[in-house]
Write a structure and sequence with these properties.
single chain; 206 residues
Length: 206
């Protein structure tokens, strides 16, 4: 597999997992078919579209490549068809979010560097790629976005983006760096959910 094919695969895998996350959230809110597909697509492609606009990759891949919409529709269909099975998963939205987070953080950082932007831009846009779609999903569902809560969410994406960017700048092999960055991001997010790790907050509990 070539490097280009590898990162394209990472992007599409991330798209599919985030689309499932959005579809599950919409299904839980009892939205209709159009609403479920819309949430799946916005969750899967929202962050990537923001990134592509920022780096000048126009038109954004999420709007110009049919595979992104197709994956969103497939994910929505799977959630509708296997709704009971999906609901049996513990916190399904958070589970699929954690999986997609690493894939998008890695691909976002890589694509930003590939377009000749700075290290800082790669890290920031890698994180935005990962959390942007989830934020749009939460806003459309009228709930506080996860990135604005005390949970370790954006921080996990930031760690993944930093690892991927550092690996590319230092010349490490792209055969393993993306997978290590994805695993690191997922581990931080999953462990924070399992053991209730949170960032400090400064509001009075009363």
């Amino acid at each position: 597999m070539t490097i280009h094919a590898l990162f394209t695969s990472l992007d599409l895998i991330g798209t599919f997992t985030f689309a499932i996350s959005g579809a599950v959230a919409a299904h839980q809110k009892k939205l209709d078919l159009f609403g479920i597909i819309t949430l799946a697509y916005m969750t899967a492609c929202g962050g990537g579209i923001i990134r592509d606009v920022c780096i000048g990759a126009l038109p954004p891949a999420g709007l110009s490549d049919w595979r992104y919409l197709a994956l969103s529709i497939v994910a929505a269909g799977m959630v509708i068809g296997a709704g009971q099975l999906v609901q049996k998963l513990s916190q399904p939205v958070l589970l699929f979010d954690a999986v997609g987070l690493g894939f998008f953080a890695v691909f976002g950082a890589h694509k930003t560097l590939a377009y000749g932007h700075s290290i800082e831009a790669a890290v920031i846009l890698g994180m935005i790629s990962a959390v942007g779609g989830g934020a749009l999903r939460d806003l459309l569902l009228n709930r506080t976005p996860v990135i604005l809560q005390k949970e370790i969410y954006a921080s996990a994406a930031l760690i993944g983006a930093v690892f991927q960017t550092s690996g590319e700048i230092l010349g490490w092999s792209l055969r393993w760096v993306p997978w290590a960055a994805i695993a690191l991001c997922f581990a931080v997010r999953y462990l924070s959910l399992r053991y209730h790790w949170n960032l400090p907050r400064f509001a009075n509990d009363d």
